[in-house]
């Protein structure tokens, strides 16, 4: 018969044996599934020369990895300058070009007298005016098909020169560095906003 001590010793030996087998199973599984190429060749049952060759290769790869890691770390810790930024503050800056555009692209007085058909079409397209819900009958406005839009915009647009009689014109008064500006100091430019005027256009 076995006494209690023998039973405990037997159980302890069984547990240790089971634990060792479990560890070996985990290690074998790790070797098989490892992404480190060639690692399983070191532990499989292969001829000794093959295992020695793979051991040398693995050692060389590990040494190369450590050397490259150390080289990159030392290079980073040197904090080499790869770019230089220099701020330069100008004491004086050139005055930029300034462009003025009137949101009202056309003068109503000019359109009423010289381009009535075009004015009527604009009024129908503008939601501020009462208009028919029907599409525009372009046959009523034959003259609009032959319009020179560049000439129309230049003629009907608001002019820069101020007229004391009509009190019309965009430039009422202008001074620059103590000198009086004139409408001739502005250059005209056709844009999507209509006819615009640019001061200091040479910039």
From TrEMBL:
Keywords: Ion channel, Ion transport, Membrane, Sodium, Sodium channel, Sodium transport, Transmembrane, Transmembrane helix, Transport
Annotated organism of origin: Paramuricea clavata
GO molecular function term, any single one: ligand-gated sodium channel activity
Entry keyword annotation includes Transport: yes
Membrane topology: Multi-pass membrane protein
InterPro entries per the UniProt record, alphabetical: ENaC
Family indicated by similarity: Belongs to the amiloride-sensitive sodium channel (TC 1.A.6) family.
The organism's place on the tree of life at top rank: Eukaryota
Cellular location(s): Membrane
Taxonomy of the source species: Eukaryota, Metazoa, Cnidaria, Anthozoa, Octocorallia
GO cellular component, one term: plasma membrane
Keyword Cytoplasm tagged: no
Cross-referenced Gene3D superfamilies: Acid-sensing ion channels like domains
Protein name (record): Acid-sensing ion channel 1-like
Record-linked Pfam families: ASC
């Amino acid at each position: 018969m076995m006494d209690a001590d023998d039973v405990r010793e037997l159980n302890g030996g069984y547990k240790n044996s089971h634990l060792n087998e479990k560890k070996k199973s985990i290690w074998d599984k790790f070797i098989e599934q490892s992404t480190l190429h060639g690692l399983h060749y070191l532990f499989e049952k292969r001829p000794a020369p093959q295992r020695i060759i793979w051991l040398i290769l693995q050692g060389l790869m590990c040494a190369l990895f450590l050397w490259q890691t150390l080289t990159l770390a030392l290079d980073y810790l040197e904090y080499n300058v790869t770019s230089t930024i220099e701020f330069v503050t100008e004491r004086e800056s050139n005055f930029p070009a300034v462009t003025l555009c009137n949101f009202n692209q056309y003068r109503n007085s000019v359109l009423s007298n010289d381009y009535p058909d075009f004015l009527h079409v604009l009024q129908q397209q503008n939601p501020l005016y009462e208009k028919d819900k029907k599409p525009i009958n372009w046959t009523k406005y034959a003259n609009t098909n032959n319009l020179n839009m560049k000439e129309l915009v230049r003629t009907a647009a608001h002019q820069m020169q101020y007229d004391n009689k009509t009190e019309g014109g965009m430039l009422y008064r202008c001074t620059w560095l103590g000198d009086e500006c004139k409408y001739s100091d502005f250059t005209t430019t056709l844009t999507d906003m209509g006819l615009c005027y640019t001061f200091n256009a040479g910039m």
